[in-house]
Amino acid sequence: MAAVSATSTGLGIDDLERHRRELTGYCYRMLGSGFEAEDAVQETMVRAWRGAASFEGRSSVRSWMYRIATNVCLDMLRGRKRRSRPMEMGPSMRPEPESLAAVLPEQSWVSPIADDRILPAGGDPAEVAAARESIKLAFVAALQHLPPRQRAALILCEVLRWQASEAADLLDTTVPAINSALQRARSALAPLRRDDGTDDETDDGATPSAAPALDAQHSDLLARYVDAFERYDMEALVALLREDAVQSMPPYALWLDGADDIVAWMLGVGRECEGSRLLVTRANGTLACGQYRSDGHGGHRPWALQVLEVDGGRISEIHAFLDPALFPAFGLPAELPAQ
């Protein structure tokens, strides 16, 4: 967006840009896609700048921009099927080549997003921890089950802690309608959260509560995972996994259930991952790595963005997004030269 002079209302580019990070988080929860969230926020910025002259100051700039972002997201969601995780699309599969037969279109699965694109920089540790929980892949996928306006109401009130009156004004409805939408959203999400095996929701089963920030223990677990994966030491890797760990690999519909099947896959169909290098990053409020596979000439090329969930001190989920186009958004290099 080109830099131009401030409008007659006194609004300038900086007044809009300071809201980009939180708007990206809002749009990501609404859309379930990091790429689409970025597109939605850019469209929000364009619409806001074009409409800045008509901004009358009857609400805050922040509320005004959330209204625009909500309309952009609702437009994008119109007539679209919801995004999911492979675990929601069918039963687990065997670690066999035939399991790679079904390839999903990009718009069918929830995709990851880099922490630094959406999480607040600094701030209260409890608030940052709560924000991390609200961008976990499982929670974002659960949100996609809600109708778009109901989804917006829940994100605004339960995640971002807006007053019902503020959400009602933004969505052009009434406070009783917002309260009713929240009640229905909580009821819809509660069984989804239980089915996912999580136990961090609030008493009403709506949004996740604040979990401890990623600490030294998690960092040590990640370092051990990187070491085991790069050495392709399955014994060391199994020691880091829960017995009931799952692994998914979008865009394939494939998902594996249990540490034994994960290892069988890595020693069978996935054997070409041996010799990979991993670079640590952060995604969806949790541990993540960029996986680079050998190019056969001493270097390594982008292969998968791995998002790791931890439960009870062990890795409970590995989501390997086989999409090298994700790497730039996480600040990961386009290749790793020969060492």
Number of separate strands? 6
Shape: globular
What fraction strand? 5-15%
In sequence order, what are the helices and strands, one letter per element? HHHHHHHHHHHHEEHEEEE
Number of helical stretches of at least 4 residues: 13
CATH architecture of the largest domain: Roll
Compute the average pLDDT. Answer: 89
Number of domains as seen in the coordinates? 3
Radius of gyration: 21 Å
Give the distance, in angstroms, between the N- and C-terminal Cα atoms.
40 Å
Structural class: alpha+beta
Give the spatial strand order of the biggest sheet: 2-1-6-5-4-3
The CATH first-level class of the largest domain comes to: Alpha Beta
Task: Estimate the helix proportion, in percent.
Answer: 40-55%
Q: Main β-sheet: number of strands, strand sense, barrel status?
A: 6 strands, mixed
Q: What do we call the CATH topology of the largest domain?
A: Nuclear Transport Factor 2, Chain: A
| Poorly predicted regions | 1-8, 198-203
Could you walk me through the main structural features you see in this protein, from its secondary elements to its overall organization?
The protein has about 350 residues and is α+β, with helices and mostly antiparallel strands. It folds into three domains: about 1-80, Rna Polymerase Sigma Factor, Chain: A (Orthogonal Bundle), CATH 1.10.1740; about 135-205, Orthogonal Bundle (Arc Repressor Mutant, subunit A), CATH 1.10.10; about 215-330, Nuclear Transport Factor 2, Chain: A (Roll), CATH 3.10.450.50. About 40% of the residues lie in helices and about 15% in strands. It has 13 helices and six strands. Helix 9 (about 165-170) packs across helix 10. Mean pLDDT is about 90; it is low at about 1-10 and about 200-205.
